[in-house]
Each structure stands twice: as structure tokens, then as C-alpha cells.
């Protein structure tokens, strides 16, 4: 659903038509890249790689949801914005951009449409990506830093995504829900 290019040329005056209905966008894309530790050493191409997909998905979803009469956008950046961990500058900046984009969509661009936009910012999750290249000492330290005493599992985050995708959450809009178990 997230194109790399617009479907029609910018000079086209013909309105877009959508062949499939969209009700919910959940964008959960992550990278762990140790070559992106600082802003000064991150190329524009690398930054583009870690932010562009989310931007394009939101752009497309906002247009489709408006034409479909409502729905929700749920973005899953990370807890890096609140934790500001050393060696994660470029990724943290991209996640801050996702959080800000969510608030702009909710407060301004989707105002009055019945579409909600929210973020879920999880802390460390027990996935292959988290464990890749990390030693046991590091993993134990992360677990120790979490007040709940464990790494969260994907199902812990999925439950919150599921809630935000229901009508029960229709008054939650423009929020960053930190599903971190207290990990900051």
C-alpha cells in the first residue's frame, strides 16, 4: 500500500480513485543499525531509509481514510524519544519525527474527518532484531532497567494496537502511548 512514487503525476487534475477500502493503518517498521550512532555521521540516504516508509504510508493512508469516511492510523516508533539512549541519535530523531507527524495528523490534517492518529512507543521487545548482536550482559541490563522485570513480548504491544483499532478508543487521538513497562 505504501508507494515509492505518487500514483499520478502532480499535473494531473483527475481525482484519485481507490479500488480497495482502508480502515486501519498500523505502521510498525524498525531497524537496528549500529552505523547510525550520531547525526553527524548519518547520511541523508540512511536517514531517508529509516523515515521515508512511515511518511509515505501515512500520506497514502490519510488520503484513503478520508475518502473512505474514517478509520485510524496507528504508528509504532519506539521508546527512544523518551529514553534518549546514547548511540541512537539518528534513529531517535526519526522516531521523534514520527511522533510529531502523528500529532499534526490528529490535530490539523485529519481534524473533522473521524480519523484518529496515535503512536504506540514500546520499549525493548524480545524479538530476533533485539537480540541480534547483543550479549547476555546487555540483555540482563535491559531487563533490570525495566520495572516489570522482563522484556515485553510482541503480544504485549499487539493488545494495545488492537484496542486503538476499536471504537472503544475513538476519543484517544494524537497521543503517544508508551507501552514500555516503565522502561525509560
From TrEMBL:
Sample GO molecular function, one term: oxidoreductase activity, acting on CH-OH group of donors
Gene3D superfamilies for the chain: NAD(P)-binding Rossmann-like Domain
Region forming the signal peptide: none
Name the UniProt record assigns to this protein: Nadph-dependent aldehyde reductase-like protein
Assigned keywords, A-Z: Oxidoreductase
Family per similarity comment: Belongs to the short-chain dehydrogenases/reductases (SDR) family.
Any one Pfam family match given in the protein's UniProt record, by short name: adh_short_C2
Amino acid at each position: 500500500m505504501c508507494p515509492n512514487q505518487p500514483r499520478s503525476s502532480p499535473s494531473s487534475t483527475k481525482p484519485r480513485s481507490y479500488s480497495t477500502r482502508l480502515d486501519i493503518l498500523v505502521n510498525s517498521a524498525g531497524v537496528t543499525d549500529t552505523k547510525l550512532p550520531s547525526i553527524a555521521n548519518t547520511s541523508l540516504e540512511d536517514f531517508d531509509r529509516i523515515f521515508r516508509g512511515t511518511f509515505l504510508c501515512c500520506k497514502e493512508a490519510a488520503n484513503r481514510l478520508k475518502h473512505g469516511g474514517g478509520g485510524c492510523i496507528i504508528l509504532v516508533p519506539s521508546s527512544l524519544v523518551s529514553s534518549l539512549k546514547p548511540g541512537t541519535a539518528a534513529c531517535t530523531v526519526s522516531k521523534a519525527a514520527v511522533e510529531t507527524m502523528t500529532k499534526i495528523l490528529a490535530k490539523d490534517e485529519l481534524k473533522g474527518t473521524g480519523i484518529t492518529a496515535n503512536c504506540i512507543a514500546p520499549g525493548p521487545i524480545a524479538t530476533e532484531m533485539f537480540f541480534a548482536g547483543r550479549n547476555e550482559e546487555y540483555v540482563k541490563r535491559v531487563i533490570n532497567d525495566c520495572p516489570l522485570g522482563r522484556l515485553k513480548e510482541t503480544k504485549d504491544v499487539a493488545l494495545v494496537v488492537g484496542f486503538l483499532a476499536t471504537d472503544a478508543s475513538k476519543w484517544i487521538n494524537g497521543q503517544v502511548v508508551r507501552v514500555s513497562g516503565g522502561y525509560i
